[in-house]
């Protein structure tokens, strides 16, 4: 069928199911302009504007990426200046000329604005549910600037709010925000291409990446981590690991601290993503040992940064904040991954073993600190412990390459106590539902999965005790799947391992 005089194909079907069928999770024949289900009920059939062909005319494409190239989500509120190419072509000239990146003015579409809704209760819910385990957004700066009713909200702030709401969703809620997720994702890409280079847009990208990671949206999650890294470098937040601005002004110190926390979150995502496939390259460089860790959380929450933070190489201290310890665990995990990536063929065996033992000692010291500090919120500590445990496993059992009896026995001796500690920690935090599942961090998932795979290897030697621990960790994954769909994915992988006897 062709359009009269144009020879172009006229769309007879939409790219996605209509709103009525999506809400009821039923099959939709996607007929245009009205599907059969809506027609039989005499209902108005609504297709998402970001997927449906424009006015049922010539169909451009059915994929969201092709749609964005012909029908942008963001619209200009007024004339916007061109992004200066010299910023990338020769940044020294850009700095020498004291040029500034232009301030652009774009408007988000109704699908995103309506999804955000009232930002004040949204922000409060975010602080209670997510901020406790990923405190990278300054409350003071957010309320003073982003939520100030006297200041118009730029597109980066609206996209950050939309990513905050998206991250609050969990599988028990209906419906799944698939359309909103795609709209937010493509709007962020458009904002990048239009030159919106701000900290708030980077934070929106990070929250979107955590959403993808937590609900096993691959390869989007993996690619988003690399995108966060490149964008963060372009914005310059990676340079804040060597700065504090304590002597400048309280506002400057708080802004630097927020940037620093944001970059540590990128490093955390990059290194934890590597655990599932150690052969992939990291998207970020290793921070220097002299890099600053985040300041203590109380100072960050109050907006008053007065003390110089600890360094990445500082001994573990009870005075460190929760995110500082998570960041230090991330730093050590990066060293472990780099250690395992190096070829041992030309290295002195004694020196390599000494380095391995030092990394092991450092990780265990950080773990011991976790249990000493009882004042820290348990779920926050658990996420930090997860990184430490994963680093220990990556250190002593990288991909299980050797299968000889001597190496296998050594791994059992080293990893047996580690997995037992992991189970003990899970028993504390999950007995009688002491942890609110809706507040749980997705960084806990891989920890439980690793423990179960090791228990299966220990089962032949330790029998019933190992089986009991394995069941406890499986229950942890099942509970976590109520919040994060990646938990279901890990359980399916474990089932496949059992069937194929891996």
TrEMBL record:
CDD domains: fungal_TF_MHR, GAL4. It is found in: Nucleus. Its main location: nucleus. InterPro entries: TF_fung (IPR050815), XnlR_reg_dom (IPR007219), Zn2-C6_fun-type_DNA-bd_sf (IPR036864), Zn2Cys6_DnaBD (IPR001138). GO terms for biological process: DNA-templated transcription. Keywords: Metal-binding, Nucleus, Transcription, Transcription regulation. PROSITE patterns: ZN2_CY6_FUNGAL_1 (PS00463), ZN2_CY6_FUNGAL_2 (PS50048). It comes from the Eukaryota. Residues 17-47 form the Zn(2)-C6 fungal-type domain. This is Zn(2)-C6 fungal-type domain-containing protein.
């Amino acid at each position: 069928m062709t359009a009269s005089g144009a020879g172009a194909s006229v769309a007879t079907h939409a790219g996605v199911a209509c709103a009525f069928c999506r809400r009821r999770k039923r099959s939709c024949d996607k007929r245009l302009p009205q599907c059969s289900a809506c027609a039989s009920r005499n209902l108005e059939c609504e297709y998402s504007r970001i997927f449906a062909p424009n006015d049922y005319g010539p169909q451009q494409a059915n994929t969201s990426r092709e749609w964005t190239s012909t029908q942008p989500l963001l619209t200009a509120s007024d004339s916007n200046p061109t992004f200066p190419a010299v910023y990338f072509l020769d940044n020294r000239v850009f700095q020498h000329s004291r040029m500034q990146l232009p301030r652009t003015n774009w408007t988000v579409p109704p699908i995103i604005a309506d999804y955000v809704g009232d930002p004040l209760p949204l922000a409060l819910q975010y602080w209670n549910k997510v901020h406790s385990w990923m405190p990278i957004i300054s409350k003071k700066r957010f309320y003073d600037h982003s939520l100030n009713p006297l200041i118009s909200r730029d597109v980066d702030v609206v996209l950050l709010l939309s990513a905050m709401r998206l991250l609050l969703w969990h599988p028990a809620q209906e419906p799944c925000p698939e359309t909103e997720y795609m709209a937010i994702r493509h709007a962020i890409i458009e904002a990048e291409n239009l030159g919106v280079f701000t900290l708030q847009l980077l934070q929106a990208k990070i929250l979107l990446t955590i959403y993808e990671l937590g609900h096993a949206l691959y390869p989007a999650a993996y690619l988003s981590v690399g995108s966060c890294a490149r964008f963060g470098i372009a914005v310059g937040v990676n340079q804040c690991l060597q700065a504090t601005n304590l002597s400048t002004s309280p506002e400057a110190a708080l802004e630097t601290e927020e940037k620093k926390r944001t970059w540590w979150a990128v490093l955390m995502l990059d290194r934890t993503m590597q655990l599932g496939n150690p052969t992939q390259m990291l998207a970020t460089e290793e921070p220097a040992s002299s890099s600053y860790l985040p300041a203590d959380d109380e100072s960050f929450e109050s907006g008053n940064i007065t003390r110089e933070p600890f360094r990445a190489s500082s001994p573990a201290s009870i005075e460190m904040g929760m995110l500082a310890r998570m960041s230090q665990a991330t730093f050590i995990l990066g060293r472990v991954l780099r250690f395992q990536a190096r070829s041992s063929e030309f290295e002195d065996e004694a020196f390599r073993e000494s380095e391995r033992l030092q990394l092991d000692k450092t990780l265990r010291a950080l773990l011991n600190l976790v249990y000493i500090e009882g004042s820290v919120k348990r779920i926050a500590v658990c996420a930090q412990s997860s990184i430490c445990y994963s680093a220990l496993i990556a250190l002593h059992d990288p991909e299980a390459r050797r299968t000889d009896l001597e190496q296998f026995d050594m791994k059992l001796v080293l990893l047996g106590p580690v997995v037992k500690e992991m189970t003990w920690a899970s028993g504390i935090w999950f007995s009688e539902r002491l942890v609110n599942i809706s507040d749980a961090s997705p960084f806990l998932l891989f920890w439980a999965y690793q423990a179960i795979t090791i228990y299966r290897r220990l089962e032949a030697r330790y029998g019933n005790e190992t089986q009991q621990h394995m069941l406890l960790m499986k229950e942890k994954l099942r509970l976590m799947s109520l919040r994060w769909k990646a938990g279901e994915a890990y359980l399916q992988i474990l089932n496949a391992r059992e069937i194929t006897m891996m």
